[in-house]
Amino acid sequence: MSEWLVLAAAMAAACAVVLVITLLRQYRLNKAGAAEEDDAPETPDVLEYMTMMVGVVYAIVLGLAIAGVWEARSAAQDDVRREAQALHEVTQRAAVYPAGVQAQLRTDIDRYVSHVVHQEWPRMVAHNELSGRGAELLGAVRADIAQRAPANELETQAYQPMLDQVAVADDARNARAQNAGETLPGVVWFGLITGALVTVGLIFTLQIGRTPRELLLAGLFSALIAFLLFLVWDFDAPFGRSGTDSADAFRQLFASAAGPS
């Protein structure tokens, strides 16, 4: 299911629930001959203050959750860029090697990149894990460099920096494996969902009626809460919920191996 469709369904459902409950409540009161409640005294100041404080506390918690998952996603994207850039640097430094060595190194790197984007990435997004095949292909790149002794001064100068770049790519790959799972634990999600239900439920303590203005504000408020929860849910997956859009760093630097966006 598309993420946009999930968002639209969540916001529509939140609005519908609040509006239906409000209308049913008013209908029940009117049917029971309690229409005089419309003229009841205003909501006590203490209740309004408590409602405001609950909303403020939940807004702070929600803001911290959004900041946390956004920071985790940014760190994961930095690891992807670091991995791709390190491999690209290897191909550039290999220019001092003979054509045959360059071709072999480029072939192995392209094979690794193609595997990462087309096979490993969907598995990482769906199952939060990397494949052993990717590690083997990266090991082949390292072997291409390490198992060939430098033949001249230029190769000697490029030899160790190329191995260092492969090590950087390997470290970034390990970081990518660690960040593949969701960021927020289940207890945090329990708190966010419970807080959303309590915050939206407090609407009904303020003697909300069924005038167009009140219904509109109630619907917009519930839709806003649903949108913010969707934002947390979407950002909670550092590499996205579907597709390989987060692998764009590989596509930019290895267009032929990774394929189009």
Task: Please sum up the structure shown.
The protein has 261 residues and is mainly alpha-helical. The chain has nine helices and no strands.
Tally the helices: 9
CA-based shape = elongated
- Fraction in helix: over 70%
N→C terminal distance: 20 Å
In this structure, how is the largest beta sheet organized?
Answer: none
What structural class do the secondary elements suggest? Answer: mainly alpha
* Order of secondary-structure elements: HHHHHHHHH
Low-confidence runs: 34-40
- The number of distinct β-strands equals 0
Share of β-strand residues: under 5%
| Average of per-residue pLDDT values | 84
Radius of gyration: 28 Å
Walk me through the structure.
It is a single chain. By secondary structure, the chain is mostly helical. The chain is built from nine helices and no strands. The chain has helices at 3-31, 45-93, 99-127, 132-146, 153-178, 186-201, 212-235, 248-253, 255-258. The chain starts with a helix and ends with a helix.
What's the SSE blueprint?
Elements: H1 3-31, H2 45-93, H3 99-127, H4 132-146, H5 153-178, H6 186-201, H7 212-235, H8 248-253, H9 255-258
Index terms:
mainly alpha; 9 helices; 261 residues
